[in-house]
Write a structure and sequence with these properties.
Length: 191
């Protein structure tokens, strides 16, 4: 039983690393810009770029088995996908035969950085702040810059571990980059 708890904690740490990866996939550095009233909504472009980065970061034994994206009004998208991780590792009690991870992510473009920050601050209560959220990353991972043509001036990120059992783990996260906020959850289930 002690080994199962250790393996479950390893999975929880892996989920935390995944949350940080999601933060890095969103991209970040710092300059000063604001959404102008004439700027077009770019939430679909952001969601498409997010999807491409998820696919690019799959591991060698990982496969996206389902993908669904749905518009939620004119300024928001909901992304849902499942990743199958196939492995045969009998020494690991958590996921000996692999895992299935289900994601549910919302992306919303607010009318201003201030409105997005207010939303971020409301949702992140009880979450652990990611201290290095403003660390520059590789240009190919900077979704915000790919979509808007500029670096974000505001980058915030936080996550929390919702639950861990010997067969499942779930975490939630939220990331803000200027007027875009991405938030959601991931659930891991052993096979």
């Amino acid at each position: 039983m002690r080994g199962a708890i250790k393996d479950t904690m390893k999975t929880a740490v892996a989920l935390g690393v995944l949350a940080i990866l999601l933060v890095s996939i969103a991209g970040c550095t710092s300059t000063t810009n604001q959404l102008t009233s004439g700027q077009a909504l770019q939430v679909r472009d952001y969601a498409d770029a997010f999807h491409k980065r998820i696919e690019a970061h799959l591991g060698p034994k990982e496969t996206i088995t389902t993908w669904n994206d749905t518009s939620n009004g004119t300024n928001a998208m909901r992304l849902q996908w499942t990743v199958d991780y196939s492995t045969q590792n009998t020494s690991n009690l958590f996921g000996q035969n692999g895992t299935t991870t289900s994601y549910s992510v919302n992306i919303q473009q607010f009318s201003s950085k201030e409105e997005a920050t207010t939303f971020y601050n409301d949702v992140r209560v009880g979450y652990t702040t990611v201290s290095n959220a403003s660390t520059p990353i590789k240009p190919e991972d900077n979704i915000y810059k790919q979509v808007t043509g500029r670096d974000p001036s505001v980058t915030n990120a936080a996550w929390k571990l919702d639950s861990v059992t010997p067969v499942t783990a779930q975490f939630s996260f939220i990331v803000q980059q200027d007027e875009f906020v991405t938030w959601g959850s991931a659930s891991v289930l052993t096979k």
